[in-house]
Design goal:
Layout lengths: L11 H52 L6 E2 L3 E3 L4 E3 L2 H4 L14 E2 H4 L7 H6 L6 H6 L2 E2 L6 E2 L41 E4 L6 E2 L13 E2 L4 H6 L37 E5 L25 E2 L21 E6 L4 E5 L4 H8 L14
Parallel strand pairs: 7-11
Antiparallel strand pairs: 1-4, 2-3, 5-6, 7-10, 8-9, 10-12, 12-13
Amino acid sequence: MKRTRRQRGFTLIELLVVIAIIALLIALLLPAVQRAREAARRSSCQNNLKNIALALHNYHDSHRTLPPGQINRTFVTDNIGRYANPAEARFLHQVDQNLDQFHGTSWVLHILPMIDEAPLYNFWQFDWNVRTNGDRGFANLTTGDVVFPPKTDLEVFYCPSRRSSMKATSEYSTCDRVNVNWTSGGNDYAGCAGSGIVFSDATDNTQPTGFARQTYALTPSQLQATVVNGLSPFTQHSFHIGIFGVNSSTSFRDISDGTSNVIMLSERRMFANSSPNERVSSDGWAWGGPSTLFSTRFAPHSREHYDEADSEHDGIVQVALSDGSVKLISVNIDLRTWQNLGNMSQGSPVENFSGF
């Protein structure tokens, strides 16, 4: 009689022990995997900054100046003085009827050919402002499609640790945009306007948000009126002035504090708040103003104002200096050092700075 041999299986206790060991291994490995993924995203963000900085250098090589921080033809005033007309980028004008020569564009537009986006640059209609380029578009005669340049997502202007699209209908739905209905064409990097107050937050009920939120362009007399004991808090003052501003034309020779000691670009703060006004961000790479300029008056990650630098990388913010190098800056950097990095001709040394 043939005897059947029984095979011993796992007991319940043994199975539970195996499952517990596997769960423990996963728990140990998951943070390492997440750190590796974040390191890769941070490196990609660093490459974005490097490519944008090189594009700015190439623009300077061709034009002997850096592009204007933003182009505005018209201005309005608050109780301090003159600032860029907020309607200039937002107004939808008829084709060939841009009577006020509205523009409202940012420095980003001018470097598109230097980041392999020459076709997109060529579709931009320079006798139209930002809103009209985005809402009317321009026909691509080759494909028959209509191209809307400012609503085009450009990968190089998105930090992968934060997003890969505008997220205009989700996380960043509260952000101010040229047209509230635009859902693409966002931006996570900004040019440094200095270490002082850059933007007017004046009440303006003609604007969609009820606030002006545009870049100051004070006249010399208006700027002088803000000076107390030889200093002014505004970024146009020599104590605070940075590389980019309204209709600016900065060359590297103007950066007297040294190109290795002055910030040209940074990751920027993106609030998801709907209020208060100073914590509502703007978005759009083509739009000159709060969506493409920042200040070093507040330390990075201070959460004080939409004009500050910040990132989605733990404990750091990445910047591109004027010499084209990219540095990792601790969010705990000494505030005075951070402010000195933001102005280009103050004459104060940047002490003990070597990045993170």
